Sequence to fold (407 residues):
Amino acid sequence: MMPKNKVEEQLERGKEISIIDLVDTLIDDAYNARASDIHIDPEEKRLRIRLRIDGVLHESFIFPAEIHSEIISRIKVLSGLRTDEHQAAQDGRFRAIIQKSNPVDIRVSITPTYHGENAVLRLLTEKTEKFSLETSGFSNNDKKRISDAIKKPYGMILSTGPTGSGKTTLLYTLIKKINTPEVSIVTIEDPIEYSIAGINQIQINPHTDLTFARGLRSILRQDPNIIMVGEIRDNETAAISVNAALTGHLILSTLHTNDAATTLPRLLDMKVEPFLIASTVNIAIGQRLVRKICPDCKVKKQITEDEIKSFTGIIPEKILAQIKNKNFYQGAGCEKCDKSGYYSRIGIYEVLKVDDDIRKAIVRKVDASEIREIAVKNGMTTIIEDGFKKALEGITTIEEVLRVIHD
Fold:
């Protein structure tokens, strides 16, 4: 993390403090610290500032409570929000220029709380520019499964996982990979996080009744080849998406489920007919993001017998047998990683290919555990196996894998 003395210098100026400079400097420091979000939380006697770095919140600054309203007002002005409204949630967006050269889009959410309005600022840095299937952490087998799926002219590719697991970033990566002048790609999102040249991107707007379902109906009249639906949230969106996939469109979307196997029964819960799910879904990708061990302070670590015993019941027996007497690694903590031992993140995945055996299971309406068993038997690597493989390779730690899987 970068030094944060710029913010402290601002606060030390006391009465001469410039709220404009303070907010600018806070955003600048958050960007330098690789933060994805800035949390501005009012308390009774202070204003707490936390930065989310590599998926984990860190308490970074304490501001005087007296400047709380001025900071929120400044953020509202930048975002084009109402400064005289203090009892309703407001969402906005603005662009900041970092270090006089790097433009960064910032998404703002302001909500009234017990001690006043809080604000969460998401820094939408162009991380998708550097993200690709080759650098994402997919195994060769999983990369082939995904590459085969995106070459098909129709069907569904579903990405699943909790909030903040990298689902949208993955969809953007796949869209950019298949974005050529020969195909028409349309997205419907909430919100649009990154602008991609050559693609028509639609922002949903509940105030004008532009929902995912209504937007998707409209998109189908625009002669698209490929459609990205930000999230399948309800039965209507699920039904339209499946029917679009059935009638010659490639649909990419996300679902909130814990793993790839649960994705298929989740569509059943959304009243989609089993034979339609079996006919349209090409692959389901389950994912999480784990922190990578800092390369500057990486040291070897031997797993003790007591630690292995503590994993019993949490980790499959097959994996427990593999980790005995193996060298693992951890970060000792240094200036580069701000003593955390971690720097940056990588995905751990499971890619469930819908083959003939899975299709038969879907039509029989079996539960997720049986679908998972069939997928593993047919070659799927589970998320936990992929995570432990990366731990054995010295990319991440066992503790980090368990943290994201059991959160």
Summary: The chain has 15 helices and 15 strands. Residues 128 and 169 are 6 Å apart (CA to CA). The longest strand covers residues 281-293.
